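Lab notes, practical 5.
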Amino acid sequence: MSTPPEWDLLLSASQKNNVQDIKHLISTLKVNPGHGNALGQSALHVACLWGNVEAVETLLSLNAPPTLQNRITNGTPLHCAVQSMKPPLKRRVDCVQLLCTEIQKQNSSGQDTKVVVVDRYGCTPLDYVEEMLEEKDVVSGDDDDDDEEWMRLRDILVQHERCEEEEEVKDEQVKLLWGCMQEYNVEGVRVCLEQASNTTDEDDDEAATTNTSKLQRLVQHVDTTSGCTALLYAVQTFISLYEETKHPKEEEAASMVQMIQYLLQYNSNPFVIPKGSTKISMKERQFLDNITTPKIDEDLTKVQDDCQVDMIHQVCTILSSCYKSFSSSSNDSTQKQSI
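Output from the prediction step:
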């Protein structure tokens, strides 16, 4: 089926670096920002090929997918920016910087955006840069402006690929955290969170920022099996434990309360509900709503068992105190955030 003519106008506008047309086509005419031509070249591929920084920035702001692969070489917009020979090089390097920043941002926020993508020949953008540097025999500090830009391009992509390695480390941390939670290992959960938040040097602001980001990724990770963040999983498990029988598993339930406390201490946000989650029951959503508002005592009266009341009250107290800190930093404290 052929696409509407205005869809291909998006590629033309990207090639001409016409930001206003790009905005009009996507925002007003509802053209798919990831639309590709017969060769699978998207607007981002085209903009990067021509080094059109403004077009790239606009397309990314309008949710154009940054890692789409074309049908020629399975190349991404990053591959196009690196392999193109269209001058000036500086603008193509700026495009690479924008793409890398967006890819890393999406990846850190829990989106399934792969950091490093290889083309049909098994090469990453960095591989092509290294090959070009060998051919040019570029030396850092040379007077040639292009040589400087090639070195900058290499540095950006080296740092970008390091993020992939960090993701592998994060995956191990996630597995460890969730394993501890499923085994009711409170101390293990505490250690996982502490290690993710620790910096090697208290005076190193960059290290502190990096570790904060690692911690956020860990606590915001959505488990594919349960459809939950760690905090939601703990709340979900706690509810199922005290509702399971007339005599709940007190030790396991108490463990979940401690885990919830640790997760909140390490900045888990009780307002974050996984986008499109179908795994959270209405009761659990109501529970989360209730424990983040002052009107929690009404529900406590419905529970007869003193032990259950005690545990629920602990969770309510913990999350209610957290509510104030999160709501004070938000313009709309009742609006749920999406991952």
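Observations recorded by the TA: The longest helix spans residues 145-182. The domain at 5-166 is CATH 1.25.40.20 (Serine Threonine Protein Phosphatase 5, Tetratricopeptide repeat).
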